[in-house]
Specification:
- The protein has a 4-stranded mixed sheet with strand order 1-4-2-3, with helices on one face. Strands 5-8-6-7 form a 4-stranded mixed sheet.
- Helix content is 29%, strand content 25%.
- The protein contains 8 helices and 16 strands.
- The longest helix is centred in the middle third of the chain and has 20 residues, at 188-207.
- By secondary structure, the chain is of the alpha+beta class.
């Protein structure tokens, strides 16, 4: 099994031209696409329809080039978007490919292993299950399935777990009320925080970072001391299940790529960015060495403003800005920090990090080509 990854820029949420060029050049086959993870230029909120548009456009491309139906692709290929490319962040997609016949097969325990990707889907949540322990358990079960799909045996080889799950809408809330059922919140935007929280807790339970006995509905979104260091969770109205992508390394993967991660302690922790890059064998002295810039495929980062309202003792006002939501502030800021080290503004930066790393920071993963 050869696992590859291709980062393509996007001129608009419906622009799949760079992916099309790669397919037509024979870089990979459409039927081997395992997952897509990207950034769209919407607002990242409840009404961010760029995510659904981008999903549909990539599904149409894969269907056209593979002969698969749209329904087949929707059940087989998680296509996950984080909305919001504030500041200098450049809209893009990372296409993960698993070729069962390419590059030979790594053997367990050998040095031939490398990057791997695993995927899974859970069932749809009902509006009343959304944001509850039922949602947590479903996410955990899905992540375990994705880890198995990736061929990862050692949790230490898991470096980034992405879940996209749903959000409550007015119609979904009304549906619950019509059955005399309660929902965790009637605030549709706040429901996105619940979604990220339960997904992250599920990730931590599946990876063994979080003891299941410590998780209850009383801690969801509240106890910042309970977190996973490899979790990245996003929310959107385009679904009500969990779509899961696990990124890591496996001795059974014949890949010329490798991934590793570090944990940012806060939004300006550039040292953690450098640590992640060095872990995958790239030379960094302040900035990524120019000769190694071509080896870096992408950075995958989760971020959150410090809930204390301060960053290293200095007050920030991200939570007080009524014009621009805090998630939009922090995405632009962290993208600038990461890009200042890598020299590339096209990286995956997602905000809203409830239970995803320490309260003021989050995971930063580097995917690179081996030397």
């Amino acid at each position: 099994m050869k696992v590859s990854a291709f980062k393509v820029g996007m001129g608009a949420p419906d622009d799949v031209s760079e992916g099309r060029k790669l397919l037509e050049a024979g870089a990979f086959k459409a039927e081997h696409v395992a997952a897509i993870l990207g950034k769209t230029e919407g607002n990242g909120g409840v009404n961010d329809y760029t995510r659904a548009l981008a999903t549909q456009c990539f599904q149409l491309l894969i269907a056209e080039k593979s002969g698969l139906t749209m329904d087949d692709i929707a059940r087989k290929v998680p296509i996950i978007w984080s909305g919001g490319t504030e500041g200098l962040m450049s809209p893009h997609a990372t296409i993960f490919v698993k070729d069962p016949d390419g590059g030979g097969h790594g053997q367990k325990g050998s040095n031939a292993g490398g990057f791997t990707v695993g995927t899974a889907y859970t069932r749809d949540m009902t509006p009343e299950e959304f944001g509850t322990m039922a949602h947590v358990q479903s996410a955990a079960e899905g992540v375990k399935a994705a880890i198995e799909d990736a061929g990862i045996d050692d949790p230490a080889d898991i470096h980034f777990v992405q879940i996209k799950t749903g959000a409550l809408t007015t119609e979904r809330i009304k549906d619950a009320y019509s059955r005399n059922a309660r929902v965790v919140t009637t605030d549709t935007y706040k429901s996105m925080s619940y979604a990220r929280s339960v997904a992250a807790l599920g990730i931590g339970m599946a990876t063994g970072e979080i003891d299941e006995g410590n998780v209850s509905e009383a801690v969801i979104g509240l106890d910042t001391a309970i977190f996973s260091n490899v979790a990245s969770a996003s929310s959107g109205i385009e679904l009500m299940n969990c779509e899961i992508i696990v990124l890591g390394n496996s001795p059974r993967s014949a890949s010329d790529l490798i991934i590793d991660h570090a944990v940012m302690k806060d939004a300006i922790d550039a040292s953690a960015v450098r640590e992640a890059l060095r872990k995958v064998g790239l030379e960094v002295d302040g900035e990524l060495a120019e000769r190694d810039q071509g080896r870096l495929v992408n950075m995958f980062v989760k971020c959150e403003p410090d809930p204390s309202g301060n960053t290293r003792g200095r007050r920030h006002v991200m939570f007080e800005d009524s014009d621009i939501n805090y998630t939009r502030h922090i995405r632009g800021a962290v993208n600038a920090v990461v890009a200042s080290v890598t020299g590339d503004t096209m990286c995956y930066i997602s905000a809203g990090a409830e239970h995803q790393g320490p309260a003021s920071g989050g995971v930063v993963a580097a995917l690179a080509r081996k030397a």
